[in-house]
Amino acid sequence: MMEQKILDYFPLGIILTNDIGTVLYRNELAWKMTKKVIDNIIGINILDVITNSSINKCIKNGQSVISSMKLNDTDAAIIYETSLPRMGDSPIGLTFMLHESLIEHLAFHTKRIGGLKQEFDLIMSLVGELITISDANGIIMRVNEACERIMGVKEREFVGKPIEQMEKEKIIDNSSTKRVIKEGRNVTVVQTTKSGKRLLVKGYPIFNEKGELEKVINISKDITETEELLTKLNETKELLKEYQTELHSKSHEKDEVIIKSPLMKKTYDLIEWIAEVDSPVLFRGESGVGKEFFANILHQKSSRRGGPFVKVNLGSIPEEMIETELFGSRGSFIKSGAIVTAQNGVLFLDEMEKLPVHLQVKLLQVFQEKKMNNPVNEGEILINVRVICSTTQDLEKLMEENLFRSDLYYWLNVAPIYIPSLRERSEEIPFLAHHFLTVFNEIYNRNKRFNQSIFQIFMEYPWTGNVRELQNTIERLVVTISAEELTEKHLSYTMLKKAIRKNGENQSLKEMVETFEKHIIEEAIENSRTLKDASIKLGIDASTLSRKIKKLGIDIAKMQ
């Protein structure tokens, strides 16, 4: 009974007959379709219902027959008749009745599906990229016409094969399909084909209504030429970096090392001593004291002098790019990275405190193990690089704030070198100033010289920017001042004011006022045509200005 009830839900009429055509069973839809002919057909011959029935012939010959019948003036049905295997002693005839409306519905959707298939086939053929469709088990179901062009393999060698076999035959590597099946998400990989082409492959999972993986679609773009161009571009950049590094080293070879203070003599002796060993070095000191300069001096005096000196300013690189800059990358283009570039030489990491904590771990691991993943080829590469770092910050405080790892700090702090500020070695200021003047006279084809008066200001000025500020100040004087002799009058008002303030620490109030007043008056006279103009700028009478000039010992003749 249960089976018969189930048959009542079928969307077609079903009639069972014996070997002489007597109706043994009909389902609900068969009754509805025949009741206008005979209300109850069970027990009567099928020919009384379907006058053109061939069921007896089907039973006798074991054939199947398709025909049609009119149900009424407006409706018709398609009749499909066949025989079933014997059940007991008698064979059974089976008749299916399909209402013409169902046939039209099926025909419409079949045509629509056919049209969609044609559209899909057209899209697949027009798309320049390789498209592959696999089932949930990784069996390739379909590929488009780009298969042979991109993969160098015919379509028949793809379809029906499991992805593991494709990898085994080295047709592809690094399967995106396997990752999509394993991870259930979109993935992007770079593949190398049997023909040597490089493909950027994006894999997409297709899920059914139950959330189960049903298919995997891969879209592969040939990036061989693009990757080759990017690789060549990167090689050119790396070569340029090597040339810059070599030029940088050569330029420092010619730099004059000026040591005129006991404090710097002690520091320089330490640099020469540490140069002989191959330990990490940590330069500390204020900004502008010359940490990079002395790092290069250390390199030139070490056994690695023939190798590269590669500088990475961690403070000037976006945080998300630091890892690639140091360790390299092997994505859509290959970059070897600063560590590999510095092989057999020195890696100088400026502003070390800017290195993110997660990369501090990676950096320490690489240099302790002396190996890392090769960014260019598969496998590992042995690292032979000396690390020199510099910082202006209090690393001990950063450790307390968990911004700098203690293990990296102790590894770096084996050879700490403190570079004193210019204020701590002020006796070197005149010598450094003369050195920079000589350098910039040569660069800008000038013949400037210092008046001794300028050195009093240089010695009194605090130089918070240290050697770099002194260097920039002298370059500015050489470039902007037309006079051959550079005097204190050519210095900026801000610089004079700071120098006077510092000098005032050892002066009385009266002396400080007179010194300041003298500089103000001299500056006004320097920038005026006449004393009358200068007095107007100062807001005093010309006679008052004359008295002050005499009192302060200002030599107007030298100023004109």
UniProtKB/TrEMBL annotation:
Positions of the PAC domain: 183-235
Residues of the PAS domain: 116-161
Source species, domain of life: Bacteria
InterPro entries: AAA+_ATPase, AAA_lid_NorR, Homeodomain-like_sf, HTH_Fis, P-loop_NTPase, PAS, PAS-assoc_C, PAS-like_dom_sf
Any coiled-coil regions, as ranges: 226-253
Molecular function as annotated in GO: ATP binding; sequence-specific DNA binding
Keyword annotations of the record: ATP-binding, Coiled coil, Nucleotide-binding, Transcription, Transcription regulation
PANTHER family xrefs: C4-DICARBOXYLATE TRANSPORT TRANSCRIPTIONAL REGULATORY PROTEIN DCTD, TRANSCRIPTIONAL REGULATORY PROTEIN
Protein name: Sigma 54-interacting transcriptional regulator
